[in-house]
Amino acid sequence: MSRAESTSASLYHRSVVWLLFLILLLPLLGTFIYSIASSWSATVLPSGFTFKWYDQLWSDPRFLKAFGQSLLVCVAALVLSVVLILPLLFVVHYHFPKLDALMNILILLPFAVPPVVSSVGLLQLYGSGPLQMVGTPWILIGCYFTVALPFMYRAITNNLQAINLRDLMDAAQLLGASTWQAAFLVVLPNLRKGLMVALLLSFSFLFGEFVFANILVGTRYETLQVFLNNMRNSSGHFTSALVISYFLFVLVLTWVATFLNKDKSQ
Amino acid sequence: MSRGKWLALLCLVPFAVLFIVFQIAPLVWVLIHSVQSEETGWGLANFIKIFNSKFYLQAIQHSLEISFWSSLFGIVIAILGSYSLRKVDSRLRNFVNAFANMTSNFSGVPLAFAFIILLGFNGSITIMLKQAGIIEDFNLYSKTGLIILYTYFQIPLGVLLLYPAFDALREDWRESASLLGANSWQFWRFIGLPVLTPALLGTFVILLANALGAYATVYALTTGNFNVLPIRIAAMVSGDISLDPNMASALAVILVGLMTLVTLVHQWLLKRSYHVAR
Q1: What value of ipTM does the predicted structure carry?
Q2: Can you give the pTM of this predicted structure?
Q3: Domains, chain B, ranges and CATH?
Q4: From the candidates A1, A14, A15, A20, which should be mutated to test the interface with B, based on the most B CB atoms within 10 A?
Q5: Which domains does chain A possess?
Q6: DSSP readout, B92-144?
Q7: Which residue of A34, A41, A117 is in closest CB contact with B256?
Q8: In chain A, positions 195-254, which contact chain B (CB-CB < 8 Å)?
Q9: Which tens digit of pLDDT belongs to each residue from B14-51?
Q10: Does the pLDDT value for residue A103 go beyond 50?
Q11: Who among B125, B238, B263 is closest to A123 (CB)?
């Protein structure tokens, strides 16, 4: 390739990447400007800037409650998934490697079945009767467990394969550790970082979950996304401040996850 | 079996119980009730009703149309983007890659609100384009509007999935091809595209499934007034009028059927793509 040709090619690639960035940035930027605009209607640019919408948002008790409830449900679901998936993976990989094939089919289900479909059955099954859970955070915790499952399962499996579970267990047992000691004191610390990354990323998409939260629980235990949707008729500046606050929160989480991930690969 | 193995098996019980309660049981309920109806009992009455109803067929058609076009536009932008991402310096690449990663979480209700600000009736881009005389009017709450909105959330996902796929395309192949006298078009036609095809189709299929099942974005944008499958299903179990869980189940089975088809095709393509990459 001639020099002139390669410069023009490089210019082309740079512009495509910048254009991609701009397309992805635009809705966020628009929302951000709207959230700090004092008023903005029927004009291209806003008339003035203010932080009052953020003030109003962060002193709104309903918002703070929804934020707290979202945190609670997501953390509970992730704690549950760690407590259940870690032993599961350990048992599958150490004792019954053949089960892995079955698991790989089962974890496709949360992907192949959209939440709106599960909701139909969930509403009828747990709307009344012995397992009445609709309208309570418990049903959300259970559903979020299934949502996080495929991701957590894959992430931890990749980690287990990287650390050579069987050799590690054998070595620990040779040195006199029991199975429990080997699992808790040797295997678990080796999984810590991979687990953290998987947890942070799962948290960031659970935090944005709307379908289950809206259909199964709604205002009876309002999460952040449901609150945002219910605020649709209030000021657009207020909801923009909410969207930006939410996005920044998730941004920090994903940033920490990427940072941890990079650290690991070095 | 030894005592240790029994204990190990016991560890699986809590997981199995939860998975059955929250994943398997609802799905089984939907499957069973899709072939039941209040009036006629067991049978395919629900499905017959769906395929004879203009309203339900419109929902299916809208779902398929929006999913197809948004996946197509999404993947084209993602292909151009991820190929160029490979060709720029690592600082810009890492930055934009990380940014795409983060915006993949920007979907659903917040995304719908952001689009209302930009492209709604009084949105700043709508006004700008109107003032420039490029458009007469723009309705975000229409099929075209939804395709644009869906395309936006398909792009980051497409980039995330496709970027690694370009690994399969080795730079020395390009040099070998050009040494043997192939021009750029011939390289893509006979080497580049065939190597990438399984990955491209696989990504396309994931985008399609992603759009088919999407509910939050369209619900938040149109308060459930636009006729697509997920909206119809939800309206019949949680709406204020005309609750019909059996009919909702039948529609849900159609949606899951479409998505299962898509997932199976993806699995099959994934195997092929792995084979090619090796």
Answers
A1: 0.86
A2: 0.88
A3: 57-243+250-276 (1.10.3720.10)
A4: A20
A5: 3-49 (no CATH), 61-261 (1.10.3720.10)
A6: HHHHHHHHHHHHTT--SHHHHHHHHHHHSTT-HHHHHHHHTTS-S---TTSHH
A7: A117
A8: 204-205, 208, 210-211, 214-215, 225, 228-229, 232, 236, 239-240, 243, 246-247, 250-251, 254
A9: 999 999 999 999 999 999 999 988 777 888 888 988 99
A10: yes
A11: B238
